[in-house]
Amino acid sequence: MKIGVCVKQVPAKDAPLSIAESGKWIRESDIGFETNEPDSYALEESLRLKEKHGGEVVAISMGPERVKQTIKEALAKGADRGIHVLDENFYLLDPLAAARSLAAAMQPENFDLILTGLQSDDQGFGQTGVLLAELLGRPHATIIMQIDASDGRLKLKRELEAGWFQWVELPLPAVLTIQSGCNKPRYATLKGIMAAKKKEIASIPRGSLAVADTITEHVERIYVPQKSKKTEFITGTPQEIAAKLVEKLKHEARVL
Amino acid sequence: MKILIITEQRGGKWHTASMEAVTAAQQIGAQGADVIGMVIGGGVGTLADELAGCQLKEVLTVEHDLLENYTPDGFTHALRQVIAKTAPDFVVMPHTYQVRDFAPKLAAGLGRGMIGDCIGHRFENGKHIFVRQMFQGKTVADVVFAGDAPWIATFQAGAFRGDMAAKGSAKAPVNSFVVDLQPEQIRMKPGELFREAKQAVDLTQAPILVSVGRGIKAPENIPLAEKLAHALGGEMAASRPICDEGWLPMDRQIGSSGQTVAPKLYLAMGISGAIQHVVGMKGSRTIVAINKDQNAPIFEIADYGIVGDLFEIVPALTAELEKSKTS
Fold first, then answer.
1. Chain B residue closest to A125 (CA)?
2. Is pLDDT at B281 greater than 90 in this prediction?
3. Beta-carbon separation of A219 and B114 below 8 A
4. Is B201 on the interface with A (CB under 8 A)?
5. B321: which chain A residues are within 8 Å (Cβ-Cβ)?
6. Which of A155, B36, B167, B239 has the fewest C-beta atoms lying within 10 Å of its C-beta?
7. What beta strand segments (E) does chain A contain?
8. How far is the C-alpha of A118 from the C-alpha of A176, rounded, in Å?
9. What CATH number labels A2-209?
10. Residue A198 distance to chain B (closest CA, Å)
């Protein structure tokens, strides 16, 4: 099975964010980046499918030069090669233009299966997987917990809301978005890290993909949200904090 | 201007966010618009009748054997026919799991964009501005549509109040919209819905919840929180990662994929406050958040915030509660 897996690089979870002067993005200097956690479950799922059915896993990422690190991490975990769609200003793309670019880069690969995470922890559009399916003319299923593949068909466990699940079937080729937490992503081994150095990462400037830059929506500005509630911060030693909080819960909020 | 609302129902029961989408659409159309409600599926007559009580120009029912069980292909083919005929400027939907599954496909098929998971809308200087969260709620963005209609927007659960949907002075007419669907257009074979385990605890009934997140670090630290829950006479709850790790059972999970609760006291320990969790608990009367990161989004909705080490604060809090009980 030839599998394409989309991995995005996003600001590290504990990175202190500040808004860039343009008001359209964050300041990228001084913060660390990491692989988008939801995508790590998609990568793990693709590696397990390869172990079971054979084939190849190709990790695809779009963004500036720094995202090569995320592709390298995927290669170290066991992906066979990488595709980097290079664009310094990827954040100006809307979900459709971003997906069109990824689809154009993936089209020649003719993947049997494309996996993505549920959403990214930066822009959080949560649209890329479904858009890729539509743009590549493939069927899709989202929020997948389990994949059973046999005879060119997929049997999939989907998670619905409020504790409900559903089994669905799809023909291959297809696109799936993977539910976070459905597996335990592996760590890269030292051997894997060494092996990754010899693996190929194809770099494709986004501009060379002949994708129209028509934008259907754009971000006017991003900003730190105004609080909907006034938070009262309680300070002191742990004992002082405990005493103050219990007092407030009893006599101010009256919930104890 | 014309606005089409795509509501969501399953087995003749509303998804609670459907009425919230009606309120959202009425606000977008506040400058004057024909707002059309739509119910899709099988056997939706009763719900359409109920929807017709809202202040709407018209209610459409879209029924077909192939729409009784949801599939992205079936819904998209049907909705494209509705959109082609009604030619709306805006299409408004609740941001449910089901909508996430088909709405981007619907938009892309039309060559249009979708602004998803919006938490608000403003009409400013002649422009419709849609507000959505980014970076896990640490920032928000004002987003506007570019290019031609239809413009598709989905709204996060709780962004608008369903009970604020304006009622009409007279019932809106209910009309059936006939769609043409063929079985071969549907590539997915949907199975029956099922639940994994019986819901052992109904957290929606608990007046006090002590909820743990990643900040609890290891399963052996869970008893720390359990002691506090015991001292408060409350139940244990958790964010998704904790249940995924198996540190607490799945039925303790709060958020979009777990239970939605509104207790009188919600104590969030080591929970950053990602959107997926917050939608399940933001209706709580009093929220206390303990987190080491002062910029954690959970503090945006907390009444009382404690920035610090939960491993120091929680035992102190438990001791204080025990002390005040005996005194």
1. B116
2. yes
3. no
4. no
5. 246
6. B167
7. 2-6, 9-11, 33-35, 56-63, 81-86, 113-117, 140-150, 153-159, 164-171, 174-178, 201-205, 217-223, 232-233
8. 9
9. 3.40.50.620
10. 34
| Chain B residues with beta carbon closer than 8 angstroms to that of A123 | 134
Is the CB of residue A21 less than 8 Å away from at least one CB of chain B?
no
CA dihedral A75, A78, A79, A85 (to 10 degrees): -20
Q: Is B203-326 in CATH node 3.40.50.1220?
A: yes
Tell me if chain B has a CB within 8 Å of the CB of A32: no
Decide if B185 contacts B73 (C-beta within 8 A). Answer: yes
Looking at the complex, does the CB of residue B192 fall below 8 Å from at least one CB of chain A? yes
Please, which pLDDT band fits residue B200 given cuts at 50, 70 and 90?
Answer: low
pLDDT value of residue B195 = 83
DSSP assigned state of B270: S
φ, ψ of residue B83 in degrees (nearest 5): -65, -40
Contact A130 B100 (CB under 8 A): yes
- Delimit the domains of chain B by residue range: 2-185, 203-326
Tokens of A215: 């934008």
Q: How much of chain B exceeds pLDDT 90, in percent?
A: 80
The pLDDT assigned to B201 comes to 75
Look at residues B35, B39, B41 and name the one whose alpha carbon lies nearest to residue B54: B35
B133 and A215 within 8 Å at the Cβ level: the answer is no
Contact A245 B285 (CB under 8 A): no
Question: Mean pLDDT over residues B47-56, rounded?
Answer: 96
Name the CATH code of domain B2-185 (choices 3.40.50.300, 3.40.50.620, 3.10.350.10, 3.40.50.720): 3.40.50.620
d(CA B207, CA B121): 33
Closest Cα in chain A, distance from residue B174 (Å): 29
Residues of B in contact with A142 (CB under 8 A): 97, 100-101
Percent of chain B at pLDDT > 70 equals 98
Write down the pLDDT at residue B197: 65
Q: Is A193 on the interface with B (CB under 8 A)?
A: no
Q: Could A11 and B256 be called an inter-chain contact, meaning their C-beta atoms sit closer than 8 Å?
A: no
Mean pLDDT value across chain A: 94
Per residue in B34-45, pLDDT (tens digit) is 999 999 999 899
pLDDT of residue A227: 67
Predicted local distance difference test score (pLDDT) of residue B250: 86
Confidence of residue A217 (pLDDT cuts 50, 70, 90): very high
Are both B2-185 and B203-326 of the same fold?
yes
Nearest-angstrom CA–CA distance, B139 and A169: 38
Question: Which residues of chain A form CATH 3.40.50.620?
Answer: 2-209
pTM of the model: 0.86
Pairwise CB contact (< 8 Å): A220 & B142: yes
Q: Mean pLDDT score of chain B, rounded to an integer?
A: 93
Structural tokens at position B23: 């309120």
Tell me the nearest-neighbour CA distance from A47 into chain B, angstroms.
Answer: 20
What pLDDT, in 10s, does the model give residues A172-201? 999 999 998 889 999 999 999 999 999 999
**A164, B286: Cβ pair inside 8 Å?**
no
